[in-house]
Write a structure and sequence with these properties.
The structure is a single chain. The protein contains 9 helices and 10 strands. By secondary structure, the chain is of the alpha/beta class. The strands form 2 sheets. Strands 1-2-4-3-5-10-6-9 form an 8-stranded mixed sheet, with helices on both faces. The chain is globular.
């Protein structure tokens, strides 16, 4: 599949401030971060410490950044980070993180301390966007002096937790989706913004995982796939034995250099990290199934860690 030329900018010329402003002028609020996210996070204060770890201000809009932290923190237990909504348009990432906190996190708090940031990019959630208003992808911005406030705030939270408790994170589950809008909107916009040809237009039909090519942890990834396939289908490889242009490491798993690409999965420098990818546009699933799949990925990984 090849998308039509993007309506902003001049082909072959990277965007400047004028083009970015033109793009921003087209973005509209389509759903409420307050009503759909914060209203679900705050009632979890019984079992978690609800903390505001930052605030993102864009024009007249202000977005408080909220996270959940194990209330009965135990210094001798390993720490686990769960993140969602780094790309705000990826709905099940946000609601998968919240659902985990609502339903099964309590079962695992005997063995792990949790930090859960369910919606890293609230402006992106409201406007159903991959980028922030500055046309920056937060999931390519997890590095020192990040240009994305969303990424910088999460990095600061992780650093503060490490300093406060003298801990390292054992695991990090970063919850994402791959949707049809990747081809209809986000990849064409990326090609226009950077004046670079996009050659991969493959969207796998099903769930898959992205591990760290520098630290793949194959058994950990495989345990999550086995857990998820109990509730939804796993994406098959294409005719080249690849997913999204990357060679398959095992069934349902590919690997990326998470640190080199500035991906969120690198933020905690965890021994075990993964990026989930759900395909909500598949005719085989619905929104609820996608959320359940995200939770199954987390529980599959935690069960593996408990048995190792």
């Amino acid at each position: 599949m090849m998308a039509q030329p993007y309506p902003i900018g001049t082909q072959g010329t990277p965007w400047q401030a004028k083009e970015k402003q033109a793009w921003l002028s087209l973005q509209k609020v389509k759903r409420s971060y307050q009503d759909e996210v914060l209203s679900l996070v705050k009632p979890l204060a019984k079992n978690f410490e609800v903390i505001q770890y930052g605030n993102i201000d864009y024009d007249a809009n202000s977005y408080p950044l909220w996270a959940l932290k194990t209330r009965a923190w135990q210094e001798d237990k390993p720490c686990v980070l769960v993140t969602g909504g780094v790309h705000g348009y990826e709905t099940s990432g946000v609601h998968g993180a919240i659902r985990f906190a609502q339903t099964v996190a309590g079962k695992y708090q005997e063995d792990f301390n949790f930090v859960i940031a369910p919606c890293v990019s609230p402006w992106g959630y409201e406007t159903i966007n991959r980028w922030n208003p500055n046309a920056i992808d937060p999931n390519r911005s997890f590095y020192a002096d990040s240009p994305a406030g969303e990424s910088a705030a999460l990095m600061a939270l992780v650093a503060d937790i490490k300093k406060q408790h003298g801990c390292q994170f054992l695991a990090h589950f970063d919850l994402h989706e791959t949707t049809d809008t990747d081809n209809s909107e986000f990849r064409p916009a990326l090609a226009a913004r950077d004046a670079k040809v996009q050659t991969n237009w493959n969207i796998p039909d099903g769930f898959y995982l992205v591990g760290d090519s520098e630290n793949p942890q194959d058994d950990f990834q495989g345990a999550m796939i086995k857990s998820v396939e109990q509730v939804t289908h796993i994406a098959p490889a294409d005719e080249h034995n690849q997913l999204i242009g990357v060679d398959l490491a095992q069934f349902g798993v590919i690997n990326y250099p998470t640190h080199a690409l500035g991906l969120c999965a690198s933020v905690a420098n965890a021994q075990y990290c993964t990026t989930t990818e759900v395909y909500p546009d598949s005719p085989k699933v619905d929104g609820e199934n996608c959320i359940v799949a995200q939770v199954a990925a987390i529980t599959g990984g935690l069960d593996y860690l408990n048995k190792r």
